[in-house]
Amino acid sequence: MAQVNPRHVDAVMELINRSPYFELLGIRLTALGEGTCTAEAVLERKHLNAFGGAHGGAYASLLDCGAYWALYCSLDEDEGFTTVDLNASNLRAAGPGPVVVTGSVVKRGRTVCLCEAELRDAEGRLLAHATSKMLVGAHLQPMSAAVRELGAGALPPKFLA
């Protein structure tokens, strides 16, 4: 596969970081590469359950984002994909504070891919782990749809010539 264009990666991260759900949860993509992704968030009161700990849904959203975006650079230009399932294990409670999610591609298939993600606190302690299957297809959430939805201009080419 051709080398991913760093200008494209920067433009995609800027675009996705201003998407409504990322803004709602305070998620920020910080790195995107071939089979990898890193995102950060600061758990705040809005992420907590009634007992003062991070809500499992917040963990799941962060894990899904990490697993999902890890696959992006492994796909052809404007090839779409969507999450089929997310199997999350919450391993440690966390309260307010910074967290980092890292995602990776375990197995890239033609139409189904297996990805995983880990969520860690600022001290590097593992908070949660997930595996996720992704369905790949041209009609499934291609980047061009995000560009249209968010009113962005044309992105640089995904791959260097």
Topology of helices and strands:
Blueprint: H1 6-17, H2 20-25, E1 28-33, E2 36-43, H3 56-72, E3 81-90, E4 97-107, E5 112-121, E6 126-136, H4 143-149
Antiparallel strand pairs: 1-2, 2-4, 3-6, 4-5, 5-6
> Biggest sheet: strands side by side, in what order?
1-2-4-5-6-3
The termini sit apart by 11 Å
Report the average pLDDT across residues.
97
CATH C-level class is Alpha Beta
The run of helices and strands is HHEEHEEEEH
Strand proportion: 25-35%
So what's the overall shape?
A: globular
**Would you report the number of β strands?**
6
Low-confidence stretches: none
- The helix fraction, in percent, is 25-40%
What is the number of domains?
1
CATH H level, superfamily name: Hotdog Thioesterase
CATH architecture annotation: Roll
Q: Which structural class matches the secondary elements?
A: alpha+beta
CATH topology term = Thiol Ester Dehydrase, Chain A
For the CA atoms, what is the radius of gyration?
A: 15 Å
Largest sheet: 6 strands, antiparallel
With helices defined by DSSP (H or I, 4 residues minimum), what is the helix count?
A: 4
TL;DR?
The chain has 161 residues and is α+β, with helices and mostly antiparallel strands. It has helices at residues 6-17, 20-25, 56-72, 143-149; strands at 28-33, 36-43, 81-90, 97-107, 112-121, 126-136.
Task: Describe the protein.
By secondary structure, the chain is of the alpha+beta class. The protein has one domain (6-149): Thiol Ester Dehydrase, Chain A. The protein is built from 4 helices and 6 strands. A 6-stranded antiparallel beta sheet has the order 1-2-4-5-6-3. β1 (28-33) and β2 (36-43) form a beta hairpin. The radius of gyration is 15 Å and the shape is globular. The relative contact order is 0.22. One of its GO terms (molecular function) is fatty acyl-CoA hydrolase activity.
